[in-house]
Write the structure tokens for this entry.
Amino acid sequence: MPFGLFCTAIWEKPELIAMSAFRSFFMCFVVAAAIVIPISAQLSPDFYDKLCPQALPTIRSILKKAIYHEPRLGASLLRVHFHDCFVNGCDASVLLDDTPNFIGEKTAGPNLNSLRGFEVIDEIKEAVNSACCGNVVSCADILAVAARDSVAILGGPSYQVLLGRRDARTASLNDANSNLPRPIFDFPALLSNFQNHGLDLNDLVLLSGGHTIGLTRCTNFRDRIYNETNIKPKFAASLRGICPKEGGDDNTATLDATTANFDTEYFKDLLKLKGLLHSDQELFKGVGSASDGLVQYYSNNPGAFFADFGVSMIKMGNMKPLTGSDGEIRMNCRKIN
């Protein structure tokens, strides 16, 4: 019997629940000692089906509670997955704390005082290790599933996540600073950045659509609301009270008008010149470009946006994953084993 099913039997059958806590722990210990984790060079949607069928339901259960108490966490976890994948692949390197051997990615310019949700990932990892009677679910897979479930919980699509990633044993501050797109990027820089990661124009527009949820800091949009002209004047004026010319760097504003709902409002806002970030509004300039057409199309076709967003997320999630015997499965997502 797969060890995940065995643990389920221990916890769900009344006669077994009556066993002492020591014996339950001993059972898990013995089963975990016999774990054989599949070695595959390919990601698969059913990677944990036999290995630990409780893994994905455990992740979703914790996320539902966390997002219910703080809806912003959904956007935060989606962003962590994105920032992980764009720096040397989807390998959970973004979760590593600094060590004497390397400076991690958390203090890189695009991440410092910005990435959130690490405590929820810690909680999920501990719960999954317990549910699976061992350390079998990688932190990289937790990030991928957490991003998908966050989107779905906030009303977006529940696309199929490919699984079987392993975790990096190192991280790179320099690579995070150089590989992540910035909110000040113009369109050519954005497209070049995505193409350097094996993505295309469609992926750029679709993944940017993830800004339909969440907030951003004043320091990321100050220049836009004071100095740019391709912005609705009343919209810019409404934001100046939140984001003064000096100070208030950490004050936040919503990325679209329905920030707790995954929908197409982001694209509709771009059509009205109400994109909050410079990089967002760069996707729609009203000149008939290819990106203009995509923004217009998805603004009126939520079903197409949901379906295509899932495709692009799967594509991004398949960027240079560690599989087989590469990397490791961390016991604690913040540090290597």
